[in-house]
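Hi team,

Filling in the usual template for the complex we talked about on Friday. All components are listed, including any nucleic acid strands or ligand strings, so the model treats them as one assembly.

SUBMITTER: L.P.
PURPOSE: interface mapping
COMPONENTS: two
RESIDUES: 580
SEQUENCES:
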Amino acid sequence: MNISECMKRNVISIPETYTIRETAAVFVKEHVGLLPIVDHDNKIVGAVGLRDLLSLELPDFVNFITDLDFVHDFGAVETTRPTPKVLGASIKTLMKPPITVHEDSGLLRAYALLWQHNLHDISVVSEDGRLVGMASRVDIGTAILSSWSKVE
Amino acid sequence: MLTSAIFASLIFIVSLIFIFAEKIHRSIAGIAGAVFMVGLGEAMGFYSERAALEAIDFNTLGLLLGMMILVAMLQPTGFFQYVAVWAARMSQGRPVRLFVLLGSITTVLSMFLDNVTTVVLIAPVTILICEILGINPLTFLMAEALLSNTGGVATLVGDPPNVLIGSAAGFSFNDFLIHSLPVVVVVWAAALIALRYLFRDELSVLPSNAQAVMSLNPAESLDDPKTARRILLVLGTAILLFFVHHLLHISPSFIAVSAAAVALIWVQPDIQETFKKIEWSVLIFFSALFVMVGGLEAAGVLDAIVGLLEGLSSIPPIWFGVSLIWIVAALSAVVDNVPITIALIPVIRGLGEAGIDITPLWWALAFGAGFGGNATVIGSTANIIVATLSERTRTPITSSIWNRRGLPVMLLTCAIASVLYLAFYKAF
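RESULT (copied from the run log):
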């Protein structure tokens, strides 16, 4: 089995002209964890995850304190929101290089990439780099596990 | 002899340029300079490997290493987090109270631990507390660095220049408590009041969520209370022994290394992890500077400088001391105070040989090197550390922000130190 057999073909993507505010609205509406960013030709140019947007709100001390168990109340941080200026910036400021696999990629290879890059979803592209699908950790993982029933 | 002196000076000056330019790491510049100095000395016959080894002050290195090992073991226990969280609760979220408490804790810790270590360990928790309160951490981070630099001057072990001066002049731990501590207490109080005034706008902002800090539990923030207790007991004993080391005829470095050995045997930490936290680059940098200055002495450079300075013996020593405070402070404001101190130690010794009473000069050197670093963001490593940490917060500390607060503090502390120095000159 390869990735094209378990991926979702109806992929939500955004153009690179979007602002951070517009991108956040797409995440909320579509309830997804990763948005591929495509050019006018549907070629993937990058990706942005929920994690990237949330980093704008995550307090700085998370980077410095290794064990946060003793902090029971985040206090003022809970109500801190990014400024209008930050939200109006281009999504390109948060965009990451895309991690992609080709349609004919094996499942374990795709899973290994997710594992290594600590991702939940991976974009699937055609030979010419066009976005054709998206596969989640669950899609790939359950597809791999389904083959276990055939083990005698 | 003159050729040797010229070449040795050239090596030292070029190394210092590289060290101060900070284009390459100071330890690399130091090692290169030391190797050149020994090589040239061997070739020209004024210096040898044996003499270079003898030039290294193992008293200083041992004291620094011993304290570094103790702190490296104390750090993962969460003790520093515990102290800062305790301060936050005591402050009940009131900014001025938090400012005084965190400032005082940093000062006391930096009297016994290296300033850099103190700031590295307290600053992250400070950011946590400020963000929970919804107040700007910049004020607190700057105050911590400035007060830690100031507090470090008080004791023999508080600051690397003091370790160097103590070893060179033969000052005991108590000598520092008698001569330096009283000055630091006055200077520190003035610095705290000045900072309270300089940050009056920031400190008048009321936290949006003062109650949140009350949910912080100090006991939970202490990750390993058993190990913390053991290391604090060893550290406390070492500090007590520092008070009487001259009576017991043992050196502070022997006490520090012994304390580290006892703590290592008692706690038996993961030795690789512990040694990773030791600042080996600092120890190597010190050794390299010792080797270079040893070369300068062997080549007769320092004799020549002392010869030039002999004319100054007509100046009253009291004014000589005050000038030294300000010259060293001005230099320390823009460059690392360790090379300045190491380079000035043989010069002061030379002045002693020329008949000048140098005991007061050692104290002037300690005050200048300690208080001078407050002026600019690059003046001390503690300043650089809080500025670097602040870059990851919403309000980075810039050079101009630092100059507006740090420079007045530096001028005030040096002025008060000078006045006390003049008033109580006979005691120094």
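MY TAKE: The radius of gyration of chain B is 22 Å. Chain B touches chain A through 29 residues (CB under 8 Å).

Thanks, L.
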